[in-house]
Give the backbone structure.
Amino acid sequence: MMDVGRHPRIKLLTYSEVEDITGYIGNFHVKVRRKARYVNEDDCTACGDCEKVCPVTSVDEHQLGLAVRKAVYIPFAQSVPSSYLIDMKTCLGNNPIACGKCMDVCEKHCIDYDMQDEIVEFDVGAVVVATGMHVFDPTDLEEYGYGKFPNVLTSMEFEILTGPGYVSEGHLVRPSDLKVPKSIGFIQCVGSRDLKRGKPYCSNICCMNTVKDTLFLREHYPDIEAKVFYMDIRAFGKGFEDLYRRSKEIGVQYIRGIPGDIRQDPETNNLILTVENTTTGEVEEHEVECLVLSVGVTPRIDSDHIQKLLTMSTTGDGFYMEQHPKLKPIDSPTGGVFLAGCAEFPKDVKDSVTQASGAAARAETILSAGKIKIEAITCRIDEAACSSCVICSKVCPYGAIGADTKAKTPAEVVEAACKGCGTCAAECPFEAIAMRHFSDDQIDAMVDAYLAVSPTEKVIVFACNWCSYAGADLAGLSRLQYPASSRVIRTMCSGRVSEEFILRAFRRGAPVVLVSGCHFADCHYIDANRWAQKRVEKLWDKLEKLGIRPERLQLEWISAAEAQKWAKTMRDMEELRKTVTKKEIEHTVKVLNEEEEKRLRKKAKREKKPAAAIASK
Amino acid sequence: MAEMGKFKCLRCGHEFEMKYTPGVPEERACPKCGSNSVRLQKEGPKK
């Protein structure tokens, strides 16, 4: 961190908050609020005179409430810059001035009670999101007694109690009597791998953190008895199994079972743990003087702020989603934005450094090139047809379309930011957006061609390029058998499949239409496939209203690996197709043609053209 | 806020109840056949 702070080409903005980010790959504009420190950081020598005379003490949030700090303080020992700041919420010196002692003693005259927050703005070509994580709060897991029994700590609090730069200066003591405990228990997976009361995922770092803690304990306090209660130890990294073995060899007890009940001895404040040892099958009681809950990792509670600013998406568990889990694990779906560390998923220091190095290198590829290659498949706005309704702007997952409703100017596409999902084109009510290489005319032509001969024997399938079409490909490569009735139309995203394409297929006599795309967590265009679902749901209502069985329009999320699901879905579609009668199809064609005529008449009126001209187009 | 809703699978016809958040798109699947063609059943007009 020191090196970063001193680097001539790195500008470090600490005690700051990103307020706004606009722009796109290569051209981001960032607005940052630099919070007032009330201490001139350039002149402050961190001599500590101000802290000595400050009469105010409050809870030190950086030491998780285990220590107190003054109103003028350095957040933690390794802070960069090594400069004081004043917590104005507790300081007596400002409004009205009742104290001012720090100002009196500061020889360098660094204290400035009138300092204001400052907004700084700058342009950057790439952004690395490394916003870190939070840890699980075990207060609600009542059986562990956290918050109730003083000697029950979280693993983060244990780090504070054993870290050299913190309250006890590296000397382990238990909170109730400030004595070195003779025995310590660790409970693993607190808040992790728990579908009902915690997080469903493995937090990745807790097992090895506990192994490291036990090694530290036995090295510094050889007489301490250490017990680890676990479901299973996941020591999967390089050298981790050796550490785990060493921990067992030096006498740390590993007990397979998670305590279901913890009581406190009222006289000694020791903790009595009841646990079913699943290795022996017996219920055991263990007494320890201090208990450490190995809490899991959670996404930052304010992660949605950056998510919205950078139009990123998150996985179901709330961490930022990478563009591709195997091929682009560092890139976010938004061009020019990269991920590092636990913002993407829980990981240890080594993996975080690896990913951060990769993210820096990926950012450098943009900055050093000076130019970027953009997608060939982007959208194009027909300015004459655009009514500035801004629907396209709202549905674009990348914020690539700008529109001004007040000025009534046509929408504008930033082609560098457009990834070509086509959701805007599908949603535009005025047909004012064309997709390059996947235009309405091209897709209409495919629908017409497939249904030109024996339409009632065909199933029209709209498949997204990245998942469903690849799933179909895999089904073919795997020689999976399914009926030959399906006719696949590839679109880049299921979000591109407009209502009009589906209705056109029905008008041309298709018995069944299937819209297929990526699973929600896998969408290659952040969340564009949600629009496909919304559209299909809307169409189910419309078809039903027109007396058409909604079952004839199907929706399926099929990933590139789900060849079996693809084949099964095609078999299901064929079964469904057989249930659609000729009479039903005739009724559908008639009703939908009438609807189409109404739509064209409206369009002609809007565009002030003869209906025949619109229809022929 | 999540609420309970009645859903019908448009593949196998299975009707079931599950939690959903109105207005928030969610990936849904029929618990019987696994199909994603799951439709929220709207209640009829109130008298």
